[in-house]
């Protein structure tokens, strides 16, 4: 068992190793699985191992078997010709591309919302960074020939709802976004085929956008000549159209829009709340950051609860959409309690805010993180 | 306690093109068959627990509900209605009140 720092609880969760192709994970829900990456994994490097990459499904109708010979990806709708692609076509029939990108649940860190909101009660581990290998979505769409007048491209996977007439998961991107040459269909993560629970055999990769769009077990692409109004676009996964998607609890009548680009975040990974740091000695601290929809420009650290900030050094750039490690040394002058804070500014000049956002779905948290330590 | 920082390397490379150049290393996919664990957890006994067990375990295991924070009666009522309208949960109208009462009296609830 593990106790998560969830204000007001319930905070106890099991650590599970029961899930196929997965190592130790925090069990948030068994069916359909919600598995969170344990925090210490993020200190081991910028790429999150496949067997500890977080898992998130909406409906329990998840196929437990995928046959690579019979699997087909179909592209249809407002196109010149419907195409049905085998996995061999995907591997051999298109140029191969590779991209490091963070996949983060819209509701990552929801458990820290104050006041608390319903939904998966994640702490910070509903995110991961992988090197994705696959093909450009644009190339696949070109094979079918998108017709003039196309508006959106809708994606769905092999998973099914478990009651009749319930809305199965489908997500859409604007056609220009789908054809931007960056959105890709991955058949490998970190050099290996995807674990089934992370979307084997194909997963949409939407760099810089929340994971809700990264459709798993992708087998259907439909080109629409109307905006998609399905439940998962129009009602679920919408955010207030306000700065930081933030409103006051109880505010009503706010314009809602589909969640979209990610925002910058940064974390300490080698220091936990309550840790003791030696007084007067330079102590290495480090962590990870990501820019959201662009790269990391800088990561600053404060050891006086945000009054003064110092730059940190950034580690190797593995690609602007991925995690970036940062490190520095801090010296805490005298014994006592200190609040360490870390703040990412992305290459668009956007910095993490110093007050938390709030919205009823618990989306897009990116407040500056702080960790209280004791110098002794 | 604090391990030393490993990856320092080149600090600021030239702005990278989004895709890394990619040698076509051979990659072969293999069919997969797995077993997914299920959960036999039910709701703690109490007034209304039968109704909750009968209506709230078809689509997700009990952890979805039991890991929720304290929610007001209005918030639980909205959740149950969302299950019925958005996700087509087949809940008999006469059970809704009992279910909401039960959820509002969970140990974590307000």
What does this structure look like?
With 376 residues, chain A is mainly beta. Chain A has two domains: 2-236, Oxidoreductase, molybdopterin-binding domain (Sulfite Oxidase, Chain A, domain 2, Alpha-Beta Complex); 265-375, Immunoglobulin-like (Sandwich), CATH 2.60.40.650. Chain A contains four helices and 27 strands. Chain A has helices at 87-92, 137-144, 175-178, 231-234; strands at residues 2-3, 12-13, 15-16, 25-29, 34-36, 55-56, 65-66, 73-77, 83-85, 96-104, 127-136, 152-157, 170-174, 184-189, 203-205, 218-224, 238-240, 256-258, 265-268, 276-277, 283-290, 296-302, 310-311, 313-314, 324-330, 336-346, 369-375. In chain A, 52% of the residues are buried. Chain B has 110 residues and is mainly α. Chain B has a domain at 49-105: Cytochrome c-like domain (Cytochrome Bc1 Complex, Chain D, domain 2), CATH 1.10.760. In chain B, 33% of the residues lie in helices and 2% in strands. Chain B has helices spanning 49-55, 63-66, 73-85, 93-104; one strand at 32-33. In chain B, α3 (73-85) packs across α4 (93-104). Chain B starts with 31 loop residues before the first strand and ends in a 6-residue tail after the last helix. Residues 1-16 of chain B have low confidence and may be disordered. The chains are: A mainly beta (376), B mainly alpha (110). At the A-B interface, β4, β7, β10, β21 and β24 of A face β1 and α2 of B.
């Amino acid at each position: 068992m593990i106790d998560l720092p969830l204000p007001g609880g319930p905070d106890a969760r099991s650590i599970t190793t029961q899930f196929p192709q997965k190592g130790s994970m925090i069990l948030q829900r068994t069916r359909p699985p919600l598995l969170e990456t344990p925090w210490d994994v993020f200190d081991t490097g910028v790429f999150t191992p496949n067997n500890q990459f977080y898992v998130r499904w909406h409906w329990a109708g998840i196929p437990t078997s995928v046959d690579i010979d019979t699997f087909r990806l179909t592209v249809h709708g407002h196109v010149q010709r419907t195409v049905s692609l085998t996995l061999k076509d995907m591997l051999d029939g298109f140029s191969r591309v590779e991209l490091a990108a963070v996949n983060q649940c819209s509701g990552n860190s929801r458990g820290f919302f104050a006041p608390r909101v319903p939904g998966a009660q994640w702490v910070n581990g509903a995110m991961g960074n992988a090197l994705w290998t696959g093909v450009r979505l644009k190339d696949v769409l070109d094979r079918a020939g998108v017709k003039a007048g196309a508006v959106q491209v809708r994606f769905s996977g092999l998973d099914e709802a478990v009651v009749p007439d319930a809305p199965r998961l489908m997500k859409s991107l604007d056609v220009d976004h789908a054809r931007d040459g960056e959105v890709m269909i991955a058949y490998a993560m970190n050099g290996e085929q995807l674990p089934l629970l992370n979307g084997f055999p194909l997963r949409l990769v939407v760099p810089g956008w929340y994971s809700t769009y990264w459709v798993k077990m992708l087998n259907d692409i439909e080109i629409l000549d109307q905006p998609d109004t399905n439940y998962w676009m129009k009602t679920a996964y919408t955010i207030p159209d306000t700065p930081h998607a933030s409103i006051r609890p109880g505010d009503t009548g706010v314009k809602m829009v589909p969640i979209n680009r990610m925002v910058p975040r940064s974390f300490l990974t080698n220091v936990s709340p309550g840790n003791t740091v030696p007084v007067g000695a330079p102590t290495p601290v480090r962590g990870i950051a990501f820019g959201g929809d662009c790269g990391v420009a800088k990561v600053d650290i404060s050891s006086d609860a945000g009054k003064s900030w110092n730059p940190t050094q950034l580690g190797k750039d593995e690609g602007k959409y991925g995690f970036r490690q940062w490190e520095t040394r801090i010296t805490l002058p005298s014994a006592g309690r200190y609040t360490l804070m870390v703040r990412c500014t992305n290459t668009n000049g956007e910095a993490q805010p110093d007050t938390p956002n709030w919205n009823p779905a618990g989306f897009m948290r990116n407040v500056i993180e702080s960790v209280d330590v004791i110098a002794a | 306690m604090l391990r030393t920082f490993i990856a320092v390397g080149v600090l600021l490379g030239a702005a990278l093109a989004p895709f890394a150049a990619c040698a076509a290393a051979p990659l072969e996919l293999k069919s997969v068959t797995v077993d997914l664990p299920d959960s036999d957890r039910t709701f703690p006994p109490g007034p209304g627990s039968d109704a909750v067990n009968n209506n709230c375990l078809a689509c997700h295991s009990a952890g979805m509900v039991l890991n929720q924070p304290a929610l007001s009666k209005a918030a639980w009522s909205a959740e149950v209605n969302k299950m019925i309208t958005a996700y087509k949960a087949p809940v008999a109208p006469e059970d809704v009140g009992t279910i909401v009462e039960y959820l509002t009296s969970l140990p974590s609830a307000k």
